Amino acid sequence: MSVAGRLGSISTRMLIILALAFLLIILLVYWVIQTQAKPRILAMTSEIVVETGNEAINSIMASINHVDGLAKATSTMAGGLPKQDDIYKQTFGNLMQQTDARIVGGGVWFDPNMYVQGRERQSFVWARDTSGVMQPLTRYNQARQTPTPYYRDWWYIPAMYARHDHCVWSRAYVDPVSNQRVMTCAKALYDSRNQAFDGVVSFNLLLDNLGAAMKKWQDKLGGYVFLVDLDNRFLAFPEQSKVTQTTENNPQGEVVTARQLAAQSPGFAPIADSLERINHQLIDEALAKDEGRFTLAARSILSTTNLDKISEQESKLLSALLLLNIDQTFTLVDSHLVETIAVPDDFILQQPATAFVFRMPFTYWKMVVVKPDNDMMSVANALSDKLIQAMLLGFIPILLLTAWVFRRYFTRPLKRMADAVADMGALIEQKQYQQLSAHKLPASAVSEIHVISEQTNQLIDRIVENEGALAEINVHLEKQVAARTQDLQQAMNELKASQVQLVRSEKMATLGQMVAGVAHEVNTPLGYVRSNMELVGDNLGRFDELIQHTEQLLQALKAPNTPPEKTEKLIAQTLQCCEAIKEDEVSEDLADLIKDGLYGVDQIAELVVSLRDFSRIDESKVKEVDINDCITTSLVMARNNLKNLDVSTELAELPLIQCNPSQINQVLLNLFNNAAQAIPADRKGTLHITSSVDDTQQYLAVSVKDNGVGIEESKLVQIFEPFFTTKKAGEGTGLGLAISAQIMEQHHGRMEVSSVVGEGTTFTLLLPVQSTAHKSKPARALFENE
Predict the structure, then answer these.
(1) Reported pTM
(2) Distances (CA, A) of 525 to 597, 602, 607
(3) CA max distance for the chain
(4) Could you say which DSSP state residue 21 is in?
(5) What is the distance between the alpha carbons of residues 353 and 346, in angstroms, rounded to a whole number?
(6) Edge-to-edge, what's the strand order for the sheet holding 366-372?
(7) What average pLDDT does the structure give for the chain?
(8) From CA 262, how far away is CA 258, in angstroms rounded?
(9) For the segment 484-493, what is each residue's pLDDT rounded down to a tens digit?
């Protein structure tokens, strides 16, 4: 066969068209990968880096918040302690001994003259020794050993000017004693009596674990990760030797800044520029917020700090931090990404990279993730290469298979027709008539095949018309039945869900009434306890005045040149103050006030114990219980609702029974509240509760009787039905008694009621002495038909 003849073959032409279409698809796929997939994958990779970076920031903030909370609690505690050495040494010594191993030191640093009048320095400081044990230090109180006072140090001054409730973090530095890299968390200390500034509380946080944390995130992200502080000094870096240098003033080593590293390694300059730009933005935000306060704070920090301890730039950053942290907030869902930077030639990776800069709240530390561009594009490149290779390798067998199938089935049309007719016969035998229309024979250029196809298709139309219509109706009816069944099942599920929700609503309503009563009961004793404490504080001022006169007299007696008339005058003043205290009976008043306060506290404690007994949250669901205890506890819980009623009890000695005390308490509380609501406002209400064992010795009986309006006889048979209520609209759900009756049934007991209109109602609970509430029992739906 000639070449022209082969090209005229339908099979050959189809193979050529298939090959051209396949090549076109490959070109289209390649174009889509280059223009759409790669940018999208790059963006997704960046999003993964950002999400992981935010996760790392949140992880670090958890440790920072721990130290921040410790400093806040310590500051509050220190402000309320008497200024006595033994108390501070014991209190803070115990506190420091219990701190985490990451805290390597800290203390309480009082401002001059704030601890003892005339004493310049007074601090209580602790640090870990070589074995890791926290030990007290005294050298900071000795001026000859510390010629530069600590109250002018570069971490003390910012804390003094801070007006927010968070730590002020120092820059990273190397401790001169332990040679460990640390940072100081400083928190202002205020006198609890007058809220005057007293000094600073500090904790030194070891930074070694930051390196391990950065290594973990680095392994997760690729590239490298490092952390800098507010002044862009390195807190953690993959190669720590690159960011630490020794100087004449700091032979133990000094942490460099990002700008100093960029001067040594120009490839780091884009990242250093970004870090400085972020700091300038921080200063600009502070200037825009309050330029006057910012300038005053920056100058004050710079001028009052020890010489050469802080730079002008760092004082501005600290001032901005103090000003902006007042309104700063932190949530786990916030993104901390500040800037994304292209690094043409990173000095660590030795290749182009992208740097992601994150900023931490409160501290304004910055974390930088540097990821090679090759890593970010590797997924897209690998996907492109593998996809094209797979398409090229798969094309040849697909082409051969297509040629074989095409030749076989195109050259044998009659066999295809026979196979199609056989398929139709199988469908007819299976009575799947509607599917015959999808198997009609296609038209053909061959006249004989066309006649057979046309006649066969007419036959299919008749079968579908006559037999298929009935089958279609049957199928439609089956679908309707299935749909109705599904609708009924869904309605049943919704009804069950509504039942559970209504039961929970009723329980929450009862709980709301109980909480309101408890709050009222607690508020009364708490009010006069507070009042008594205020009076105690006022009377203590009289003793402070006596102590002041006594101290002046002692100083005068110790002085050798004190005139006698001055001494006599001081003695007279002291005696006069003492007589005034005796005449006013201040000591007796203090004793009475404290006794009254303790009585109020006892009342609150009694209510708390009753609340615990009521809830029984610390006990198993079913246990042996004295029903009288449940009655007493529930009366205490309902005391606020029953305050206008004369409540009387007649409780007999009862045997213990097995029951769920929390559920029994719920039933009793519901009955007490219903009784209180059933008594008109113009009638003096009474409530009488009795407990006993019935004559058969098989049941415990608890009777709740009120003198309310009563219930009509026609409604007595309905009160245990769900949603039925005799209250006004909006005052009740009608579920309280229904749930109570169900609880009694689950305990194999029952609830009885008797009522006389105008005279009152009596509810009686009957619980079996040998209760089987702990045994399994089929649950009954609250709304099922009897």
Answers:
(1) 0.45
(2) 8, 9, 11
(3) 148
(4) H
(5) 6
(6) 234-236, 224-228, 366-372, 353-359, 337-343
(7) 77
(8) 6
(9) 878 777 777 7
